[in-house]
Design a protein that fits this description.
Blueprint: H1 3-6, E1 21-23, E2 33-37, H2 43-51, E3 56-60, H3 67-72, E4 77-81, H4 84-95, E5 104-109, H5 114-124, E6 128-132, E7 135-138, E8 141-143, H6 152-164, E9 169-173, H7 176-180, E10 189-194, H8 208-216, E11 226-230, H9 234-242, E12 248-253, E13 263-272, E14 275-282, E15 285-291, H10 297-311, H11 316-324, E16 334-337, E17 343-347, H12 352-363, E18 370-374, H13 383-395, E19 398-401, H14 411-419, E20 427-429, H15 433-442, E21 449-453, E22 460-463, E23 466-469, H16 472-481
Parallel strand pairs: 1-2, 2-3, 3-4, 5-9, 5-10, 6-9, 10-11, 11-12, 12-13, 17-21, 18-19, 18-21, 19-20
Antiparallel strand pairs: 6-7, 7-8, 13-14, 14-15, 16-17, 22-23
Length: 486
């Protein structure tokens, strides 16, 4: 594409320069690339882009950040664009010939369950791509992006690659950050799924109302054809009321609802050491789900996925068969042990609501003794720490508080925040996460259950800006191999 075509309607460009690519990351620049210098771009980033062969620099029209460079460097075109950040997605989508127009995209949003639901759908929709916290790609083969919802440049590039691969369906997690920062502009959604909403990201949003409003925007998009909503959630009820009449509205519930052709209910839920069994009803039809997944909240996740399949045109029996065959997602109630050893679950639960659901639901599986190992991330919502401490003490028989990702905070301060919600009963502090996991498992009996919460799929621990390789799963496997009944 030529530069003047790319920026038509956005800026006056006389030279029909052929461009090779477009990026906001100066490290990715190659000869004849366009580098987009957003408001957080520094002079050093721009200079790096120029040194690597950028042929044009786009910047905010009223920016005064690069005057010396503009005077000194004449080998590139300097193009000011008014409200560049707001127009970023449109510019990049145009570069890739609007790939979203050729795809059926399903967006999944909510506080908890986004990753599980997206990965479950990717398992069922075998010719689909998934984009989310674990990365992007096909089920079991994803490339890490570092974001739940990638920035607009990366997202449009992924969608373009998806089209080039001949895929027709994309399942993606939509974060509140992704909505607020316009990352999903020019991404056209066929369907939207709401899992639930509870306290999270209040270090970013000023209030729960603002957090919810960001989620709600996904359900107000004019291109939307269907919406799938958890109507047991109080915020889900608000979404139901806000969905336009032109959108096919489907709901799911674990409670008694009025029988409806578009309401899927779970009944007779049974949790056992073998997994989950429950009945699903929709209108006058019913089917039985037998699943090897654990945790009653996974009933909600499975309901969300099954309802989405119905919205896509699957019949109930077909959808129920596919749901029964679902495999667990890495770091989401991932099960280890059993066969005469303690049952150990690694889960990403890092919010009060998620931790409560994990612990409460495992109680239903009736372990002899339930332990939890968890911490809280640094430089994130500090208000949730004491809440998580109180929840752990309420539902677990034993607690080991440890480090998560302290980042740039002092770990002792994070621990103190957590302990402020506890009465220090059956509680110990072991800052070394590997030792904490080892201690919990080595002290357990074969009838016990242990939850390792907070990091899930993450394969690192971040301290003072340095990420050190670390895997909860690897530690769990190693300790279980050496485990002996005390």
């Amino acid at each position: 594409m030529k530069l003047n075509e790319l920026l038509a309607d956005f800026a006056k460009v006389d030279t029909p320069l052929e461009i090779a690519g477009i990026t906001i990351d100066s490290r990715e620049v190659k000869p004849d690339y366009v580098f987009i210098a957003l408001t957080d771009a520094t002079v050093n980033y721009v200079q790096q882009a120029i040194d690597k062969g950028a042929s044009a620099i786009l910047f905010e029209q009223d920016s005064t950040d690069f005057p010396s460079l503009q005077n000194d460097v004449s080998c590139v075109q300097w193009i000011g664009v008014e409200n560049l950040t707001d127009k970023l997605a449109e510019i990049v989508a145009r570069h890739y010939n609007y790939p979203a127009r050729n795809l059926d995209i399903i967006g999944i949003t909510g506080t908890n369950g986004k990753t599980s639901c997206s990965q479950f759908l990717a398992q069922v929709l075998t010719d689909s791509m998934v984009i989310g916290t674990l990365g992007w790609g096909t089920w079991g083969n994803v490339k890490f992006t570092g974001y739940t919802t990638p920035n607009a440049v990366v997202l449009q590039r992924i969608l373009a690659e998806t089209v080039a691969l001949g895929k027709k369906t994309v399942v993606m997690e939509v974060s509140s950050h992704g909505v607020q920062e316009k990352r999903i502009d020019q991404t056209f959604f066929k369907g939207a799924v709401f899992t639930n909403l509870s306290r999270d990201h209040l270090d970013y949003h000023n209030s729960m109302a603002e957090y919810f409003n960001a989620k709600l925007q996904l359900f107000k998009r004019p291109e939307l054809q269907f919406a799938v909503v958890n109507c047991d959630d109080e915020y889900g009820q608000k979404i139901v009321a806000a969905v336009a009449p032109s959108v096919a509205l489907w709901t799911f519930s674990k409670q008694e609802q009025i029988n409806s052709a578009r309401c899927v209910q779970a009944k007779n839920i049974n949790c056992s050491i073998n997994g989950l069994q429950f009945e699903v009803c929709c209108g006058n039809q019913s089917a039985v789900i037998n699943s090897r997944l654990y945790g009653e909240f996974n009933v909600e996740n499975m309901l969300a996925v099954l309802t989405t399949l119905l919205a896509l045109g699957f019949n109930l029996d077909e959808a129920a068969e596919k749901i029964s065959a679902l495999q667990s997602v890495p770091g989401r109630m991932e099960y280890f042990g059993g066969n005469g050893k303690p049952a150990v679950f690694v889960d990403f639960a890092h919010t009060p609501d998620a931790l409560e659901k994990v612990l409460q639901t495992l109680k239903h599986h009736q372990p002899k003794f339930l332990s939890v190992v968890f911490g809280c991330g640094g430089n994130r919502d500090a208000g949730k720490r004491r809440l998580m401490g109180a929840i752990a003490e309420k539902f677990a028989d034993k607690i080991i508080v440890t480090d998560d990702n302290p980042r740039f905070e002092e770990g002792d301060n994070i621990i103190a925040d957590i302990l402020s919600g506890c009465k220090n009963q059956n509680l110990s502090v072991i800052r070394d996460r590997a030792l904490a996991i080892q201690t919990a498992i080595s002290q357990a009996t074969s009838d016990d259950c242990i939850v390792i919460a907070g990091k899930g799929h993450e394969d690192y621990q971040e301290v003072k800006g340095i990420k050190t390789p670390f895997s909860d799963q690897a530690i769990v496997k190693q300790v279980l191999e050496q485990w002996k009944e005390q």
